[in-house]
Write a structure and sequence with these properties.
- There is one protein chain.
- The protein is α+β, with helices and mostly antiparallel strands.
- The chain folds into 2 domains: 116 residues, Glutaredoxin (3-Layer(aba) Sandwich); 177 residues, PITH domain (Jelly Rolls, Sandwich).
- It is built from 6 helices and 15 strands.
- The strands form 3 sheets. Strands 6, 7, 9, 10, 11, 12, 13 and 15 form an 8-stranded antiparallel β-sheet that branches.
- Strand 4 and strand 5 form a beta hairpin.
- The radius of gyration is 20 Å and the shape is globular.
- The chain starts with 5 loop residues before the first strand and ends in a 15-residue tail after the last strand.
- The C terminus is likely disordered.
- Belongs to the thioredoxin family.
- It holds the Pfam family PITH.
- Keywords: Disulfide bond.
């Protein structure tokens, strides 16, 4: 079931969302415009029951009073304005208080979601994998609750948290230029803190990390791959950096150059007995593998088993920071 529309906080977050999600509906609004608020309610109500939230479908809203750059980029002159995107391309737009046209857009949205689900079920999806899955286990990355995830110390000029879980092949491997930076980099130093709550109780067997920094060894400012990582399970919210430094980890990880395959992916086996029945995971990148002050991650994959769905209403969400 699709939850409430995501409030976009920055142009970088919007670009990341478009890049990471197959189908996006965005509503441009102003809190002072009654028709805008009614349109948000209609959109959220009529999208109830649609599956694929987070990777196939995302609802979003943009406050034009706060994010004028996005408003200008799409030439928004009337409120509310609703736009439907598929694979990053605009396929429909409704300007002004036009309920019949909005209803038509919602029907088009439902058909697009049904088509995406059929494509996924038939195995024709172009989902990219950085490494083979361990025998007997499946990719459970889609169990990450993206709206409640939090990434700290992220450079907002790069992608947001959602790009980490994209099923698309990283642009660094595609041979062409990406329309947006589909990776994350740290900001003030080489540390990152990622909080991941799950939709169901998980048993995790393997963590796959893809990192594709530039290959120019002469550039001291180029981001690095992660080297030292700490994992923590079942925390109710994200940790602080000092707390993560001092706290005993569920598992400590030390990566070397030989751990990365030709796709830039390291498959990290987890101590399976310690990763049973978990509802959240905190990933702390302690440092990178060189002297730069930035570390880079392109993709994350969680491999294991999923169980019973959780009551997400009981999970506390903290903060509204860049990169959420």
């Amino acid at each position: 079931m699709v939850s409430a529309a995501v409030e976009i906080q920055s142009p970088a977050e919007w670009s990341s969302l478009l890049d990471a999600t197959k189908i996006v509906v965005v509503l441009f609004y102003s809190p002072s415009n009654a028709a805008s608020l009614e349109a948000i309610h209609i959109l959220e109500h009529h999208s109830q029951g649609l599956e694929g939230h987070g990777t196939v479908l995302e609802l979003a809203k943009v406050n034009v009073d706060e994010l004028k750059a996005i408003k200008s980029a799409y030439s928004i002159t009337q409120l509310p304005t609703t736009m439907l995107f598929q694979n990053g391309k605009e396929i429909d737009k409704v300007s002004g208080d036009n309920i019949p046209r909005l209803t038509h857009l919602i029907e088009k949205l439902k058909r697009a979601v049904d088509s995406a689900k059929t494509e996924k079920a038939s195995g024709s999806s172009s989902s990219w994998k950085g490494a083979a899955l361990p025998r007997g286990y499946v990719d459970v990355t889609d169990q990450v609750e993206l709206n409640r995830s939090e990434l700290l110390n992220v450079d907002t000029d790069t992608g947001g948290v959602r790009v980490l879980f994209s099923s698309e092949k990283p642009s660094a491997l595609s041979g062409g230029k990406a329309t947006a930076k589909d990776w994350v980099e740290s900001d003030t130093d080489d540390q990152l803190l990622l909080f991941m709550p799950f939709k169901s109780m998980l048993k995790l067997h393997t963590l796959q990390i893809t990192s594709l920094p530039p290959t120019d060894d002469d550039d001291d400012e180029a981001p690095m791959r992660p080297k030292t990582i700490k994992l923590f399970v079942n925390k109710p919210h994200n940790l602080g950096f000092d707390e993560a430094e001092d706290l005993q980890a569920t598992q400590d990880i030390e990566l070397s150059e030989s751990d990365w395959n030709k796709e830039g992916t390291a498959s990290i086996p987890l101590r399976y007995v310690r990763f049973q029945n978990i509802n959240t995971l905190v990933l702390f990148v302690v440092n990178g593998d060189g002297d730069s002050e930035k570390v880079r991650i392109d993709r994350l994959r969680l491999i294991g088993e999923s169980g019973a769905a959780r009551d997400m209403g009981k999970l506390e969400k903290i903060g509204d920071l860049p990169g959420e």
